[in-house]
Design brief:
331 residues, mainly alpha, 3-stranded antiparallel β-sheet
């Protein structure tokens, strides 16, 4: 990528304005934590990458040099296509670039000097709820990512999610293994499995529930529907689970529903939990997944009513979801 295209948020909007007027569709990829790759077409939709490119020895060898060893290493870098990303750019009021006011050139120098990174995209891609995959209608299970790729933080997070999943599966097996697991994976899974030894209300609610939240944050954005069902089933198989506090049942049900894209259950459980949840981070999560469930129903008017009730200005995720609802109403 040309260094002049290393972007700050201002530049990205300007490139988008040019793309939208000249191309029917585009897709954005983050090759690493600091750059943005744009693939555009004048006609139709930008096609999904094909794994056939890895059948070409010369191409596969070149891609391997930058840690792209299979199609998942490419797909994990996808931010979204025009249908998903367009509302994000509508949030900006920066004027369009022209020969009379060369904003792109002026801001490129500023961006290189400050080493700006488009953190908004990474925030959206790694948020605890899989917002971008759901809006983009994508169900990808990242099970074969390059474990040596250190250039892209999202890849490392997705590798960790798979590692956590595999270690939990190993704890359910009686067979010994020499498989190495990350320290964080071992810690998260062991914390989650302490539920097998807890019966006290305070221990379950104030000690185990935070472990459940941490587990969900590290896994749910990077798994496909059904990938974690064996874990939810193991939690529910805990002796005495039926007598556990309702808040535990509701959170487990909600996280499974989010993972499996079960939108009616998401809407129901998020509404119930919002009535008593006091933690600001968890309240945000409940609001986000509730809004996503409304969007799945294409109930965009109701989404805007939600935003009339909550103070969300300045939060990139809430602003993006509100802009998405407005975009579809006007579409």
């Amino acid at each position: 990528m040309d260094p002049s295209l290393r972007t700050g948020p201002e530049n990205t909007v300007l490139y988008h304005q040019a793309l939208s007027s000249e191309f029917a569709d585009y897709a954005l990829y983050m090759p690493n934590d600091g750059d943005l790759l744009i693939v555009a077409t004048k006609n139709g939709k930008v096609p999904e990458p094909s794994d056939k490119i890895f059948n070409i020895p010369a191409t596969a060898a070149e891609l391997k040099k930058i840690e792209l060893k299979n199609i998942q290493d490419i797909l994990v870098r996808n931010v979204g296509n025009k249908d998903v990303i367009h509302p994000l750019f509508l949030l900006s009021d920066i004027r369009a670039n022209s020969d009379y006011y060369p904003v792109v050139e002026n801001l490129a120098v500023k961006a290189r000097f400050k080493k700006d990174i488009i953190n908004e995209f990474k925030d959206l891609m790694t948020y605890k709820a899989p917002v971008m995959p759901i809006l983009g209608n994508k169900t990808i299970s990242y099970t074969h990512l390059s474990k040596t790729d250190k250039s892209f933080g999202v890849t490392q997070q997705a590798v960790l999610a798979d590692d956590i999943k595999q270690f939990y599966r190993q704890t359910l097996s009686e067979q010994l293994t020499n498989q190495y697991y990350q320290v964080e994976s071992v810690g998260l899974v062991r914390s989650l499995k302490t539920i097998k030894h807890q019966q006290n209300y305070d221990e379950i609610t104030y000690a185990w529930l935070p472990a459940l939240h941490s587990f969900a944050e590290k896994t749910t954005p990077y798994v496909a529907p059904g990938d974690l069902d064996f874990i939810w089933n193991d939690i529910r198989a805990t002796e005495g689970y039926s007598s556990f506090p309702d808040v535990i049942h509701n959170w487990v049900d909600l996280y499974q529903a989010v993972t499996n894209r079960d939108f009616p259950v998401i809407k129901e459980k998020a509404s119930i939990l919002l009535k008593t949840e006091r933690d600001p981070l968890q309240r945000k999560y409940l609001a986000v997944v509730g809004i996503i469930s409304l969007m799945h129903e294409k109930n965009y008017d109701e989404v805007l009513k939600v935003f009339e009730k909550i103070q969300s200005r300045g939060d990139i995720l809430f602003d993006f979801l509100e802009a998405t609802a407005q975009y579809h109403i006007k579409k």
